Amino acid sequence: MEPMTVRRTLRTLCALFLALAMTSSAMSPLEMRLDRHMKTWQKRLGLESWNLAVQVVRQSSLDKHTWGNAEWDPATRSGVISVLDPRDYNLKGRDLNLDMECTIVHELVHIQVSPLDAQDETTREEVVNKIMTALLNRPCPN
Q: Which end of the chain is more exposed for a tag (fewer CB within 10 A), N or C?
């Protein structure tokens, strides 16, 4: 295995362990809602065979100017989607809820198209955003 693949696999396993530890305790209403969104979109995108978890994280755990991310391992078909904590969001109410769903769909689309792995990140983001907007049939607040 290449060093990059090993690091990614280890990060994914650590994130999964953390997510499983977090989900073994009672989930908050927010986490339950995000998990329902993830399961709905996972099914719609044909990713039901994947073992995915969603977690709410503070901005310090994400790249600057992002609302979420995903770590996954295609070999084990497992991963974790991180969504920005509402305390760190620039939105409130309905826009916040819509954008959190957009983040989940965006990250699931990354997993769905990961076999394509374009070299250019800007190109990948454009493709993912177009698919996300088409699936949701609406633009997203952010």
A: N
Among 18, 26, 27, 36, smallest CA distance to 82 is for 18
pTM of the predicted protein model:
0.71
Answer yes or no: is 86 within a domain.
yes
Q: Flag whether 142 is in a domain.
A: no
Please, which residues have CB within 8 angstroms of residue 15's CB and are 6 or more apart in sequence? 55, 71, 79, 80, 82
Q: How far is residue 61 CA from its own chain's centroid?
A: 13
- CA 66 to CA 131: how far, in whole Å? 18
| pLDDT tens digits, one per residue of 87-132 | 999 889 999 999 999 999 999 999 988 877 767 788 778 778 878 8
